[in-house]
């Protein structure tokens, strides 16, 4: 009979068999998937693993410190923090098409990995925390003709020129199973319970052109929103919650002055595996209080809306 403990042992055996005595680099995003993959692979092959945390400048508030602290200091896993903010934001400058954004980010991720892989003697493998839903969503849409809904940055294999083979130990798992595996590996519950965060990061929560100003505003609004959700004890009831900053300024009034600032949308959904989702039924009181806090605490936002679209027909992220 099947247990997660047995799955873990089998996964470790397969990783050792695939990798032999070669070096592996693992792309760390700070999300649950890549973290579980890294800890699993570290358990299998120890110091043959080096993690590369690509900081694309599209991370949430405090995320860099949390991830670096956890892996380098807590787990003692060799970790390279690649600060590539200038590279990513430079290439994304002026780009507003969602698929183009995803493709640029995906390509740069691979370039940055390649650069670091070249510096690790004997690196032959690249590990990724690709899950089963990632695999099927980027291939086809349930039952219908083969249509790409979104190009997930971490799927699709690697260019031949990269010369690295893939290690994807979570490829058969759904999100809840990854969390169970993380638990089995001894990851802290607070980390395992974190909401999913997409590889392209805040880029796909900033529809239209990405600017540093918008990213800054988005980070602050998102932090206030998540703080509200935690304070009200709702975090664990929600699959994913975040703010999207809208590419539109609206007129408002504050004190006795006119404002002309960005509008934002709050998103919160329940889901089992991310494939379908329902919007979360917050109380009006919660929504009102959160809107007031965001407008009072975040300079640059003067209007807050709540996204009540389910998936389908919407997707969870805005791009
Ligand atoms: P959508 O927006 O397609 O998202 O309904 C479903 C789930 O996938 C996450 N997501 C991604 N995760 N790379 C990732 O690792 C990506 O490119 C990507 N795009 C979306 C999204 O946050 C949600 O949990």
TrEMBL record:
Keywords: ATP-binding, Glutamine amidotransferase, GMP biosynthesis, Ligase, Nucleotide-binding, Purine biosynthesis. One of its GO terms (cellular component) is cytosol. It catalyses: XMP + L-glutamine + ATP + H2O = GMP + L-glutamate + AMP + diphosphate + 2 H(+). ATP binds at residues 29-35. This is GMP synthase [glutamine-hydrolyzing]. Pathway: Purine metabolism; GMP biosynthesis; GMP from XMP (L-Gln route): step 1/1. Homodimer. Catalyzes the synthesis of GMP from XMP. It comes from the Bacteria. The gene is guaA_2. Residues 2-194 form the GMPS ATP-PPase domain. GO terms for molecular function: ATP binding; GMP synthase activity. Its EC number is 6.3.5.2.
């Amino acid at each position: 009979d099947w247990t997660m403990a047995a799955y873990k042992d089998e996964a470790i055996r397969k990783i050792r068999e695939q990798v032999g005595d070669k070096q592996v680099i693992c792309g760390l995003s700070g999300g649950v998937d890549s973290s579980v993959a890294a800890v699993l692979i570290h358990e299998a092959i120890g110091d043959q693993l080096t993690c590369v945390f690509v900081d694309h400048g599209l991370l949430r508030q405090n995320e860099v410190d949390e991830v670096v602290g956890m892996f380098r200091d807590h787990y003692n896993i060799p970790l390279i923090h690649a600060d590539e903010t200038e590279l990513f934001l430079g290439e994304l400058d002026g780009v507003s098409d969602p698929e183009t954004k995803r493709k640029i980010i995906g390509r740069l991720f691979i370039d940055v990995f390649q650069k670091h892989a070249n510096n690790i003697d004997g690196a032959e493998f690249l590990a990724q925390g690709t899950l089963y839903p990632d695999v099927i969503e980027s291939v086809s849409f349930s039952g219908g003709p083969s249509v790409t809904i979104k190009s997930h940055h971490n799927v699709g294999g690697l260019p031949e020129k990269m010369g690295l083979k893939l290690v994807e130990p979570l490829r058969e798992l759904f999100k809840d199973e990854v969390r169970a595996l993380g638990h089995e590996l001894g990851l802290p519950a607070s980390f395992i319970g974190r909401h999913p965060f997409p590889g392209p990061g805040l880029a796909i929560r900033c529809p239209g052109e990405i600017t540093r100003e918008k990213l800054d505003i988005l980070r602050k609004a998102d932090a206030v929103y998540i703080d509200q959700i935690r304070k009200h004890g709702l975090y664990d009831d929600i699959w994913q919650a975040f703010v999207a900053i809208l590419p539109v300024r609206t007129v408002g009034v504050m004190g006795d002055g006119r404002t002309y600032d960005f509008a934002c949308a709050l998103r919160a959904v329940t889901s089992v595996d991310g494939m379908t989702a329902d919007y979360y039924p917050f109380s009006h009181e919660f929504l009102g209080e959160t809107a007031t806090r965001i407008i009072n605490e975040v300079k640059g936002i003067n209007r807050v809306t709540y996204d009540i679209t389910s998936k389908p027909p919407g997707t969870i992220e805005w791009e």
